[in-house]
Design brief:
Strand order of the largest sheet: 3-2-1-4-5-6-7
Distance between the termini: 42 Å
Shape: globular
CATH class: Alpha Beta
Number of strands: 7
CATH superfamily: NAD(P)-binding Rossmann-like Domain
Oligomer: single chain
Order of helices and strands: EHEHEHEHEHEHHHEH
Strand content: 5-15%
CATH architecture: 3-Layer(aba) Sandwich
Radius of gyration: 18 Å
Number of helices: 9
Length: about 270
């Protein structure tokens, strides 16, 4: 299928790397107008350039720190000023500060500000516009670790569990208005997330191999493209009768029995 999102305006938060970047590029390939949200200006402009070079349409309105309301307001206002609407909101901003060297309290607060507070702020900056038009698709991002054993990134997984709560409650409220809200629960996806857990990268190869063989029924690590395909499903008419769903994209983790104990718990 082609042009599944033709002329739809999609804000993708966290689109400067990892899963969010893969989602932004796939949306653009399906003819969406993509608004790239992210803090890193160099990476944001690179994503826009790559989308444009491939024949797509994208904008980067400057750095957006999802924990800052003024940055969110700027992004939303610029989007509405140029395009007049927001059809899709996909929130893939996320970061853990474990291994960052910060003290425990600071790491906890920064984790919550990005992964929970920021998601809340961005969603409720966009929802009023969708309610006015009685149309919209919202895709949030949780984690397999929110409710299943994995690496003990406690604050990160607490924040991601909150995203699932937001999904089901907002879906119930917005369903009569034609707004669908769904959530992706990624398993072990190869993204910069692992940089915080393994800062020098020396454990990366053995870690990924161990996780794949021990914990993932499909036997491999996931990719940003694996997540992007499901994000496209939730943004398109293929899921027109789906809302309030929290869906694993984890190679069978979370709902299919794997093997033994967590490789991550034993090796990190």
């Amino acid at each position: 299928m082609e042009n599944m999102l033709k002329n739809q305006v999609a804000i993708v938060a966290g689109a400067t790397s990892g899963m969010g970047e893969a989602v932004a590029k796939l949306y653009a390939r399906e003819s969406a107008i993509v608004i790239v949200g992210g803090r890193n200006e160099k990476k944001g402009n690179r994503v826009v350039e790559e989308i444009t070079a491939a024949g797509g349409t994208a904008r980067y309105y400057g750095p957006m720190d999802i924990s800052k309301q003024e940055d969110i307001d700027h992004l939303v206002q610029k989007t509405l000023a140029e395009f007049g609407r927001i059809d899709i909101l996909a929130v893939f901003s996320g970061q853990t500060y474990d291994g960052s060297g910060l003290d425990a309290e600071t790491a906890y607060r920064k984790t919550m500000e990005v992964n929970m507070d920021g998601t809340y702020k961005l969603v409720f900056s966009v929802v009023p516009h969708m309610k006015e038009r009685k149309s919209g698709k919202i895709i949030l991002c949780s984690s397999n670790g929110a409710f299943n054993r994995t690496t003990p990134a406690y604050a990160y997984h607490m924040a991601k569990a909150a995203c699932e709560s937001l999904t089901v409650n907002l879906a119930m409220e917005c369903a009569p208005l034609g707004i669908r809200v769904n959530c992706i629960k990624p398993g072990p996806i190869v993204t910069p997330f692992w940089d915080e857990l393994d800062p020098d990268g020396t454990k990366r190869g053995p870690l990924f191999e161990g996780i794949s063989k021990t914990e993932v029924p499909l036997g491999r690590m996931g990719t940003g493209e694996d997540v992007a395909g499901v994000a496209l499903f939730f943004a398109s008419d293929l899921s027109a009768y789906v809302t309030g769903l929290c869906m694993y994209v984890a190679g069978g983790m979370g709902y299919v029995y794997a093997h033994g104990q967590s490789f991550i718990l034993k090796n990190i």
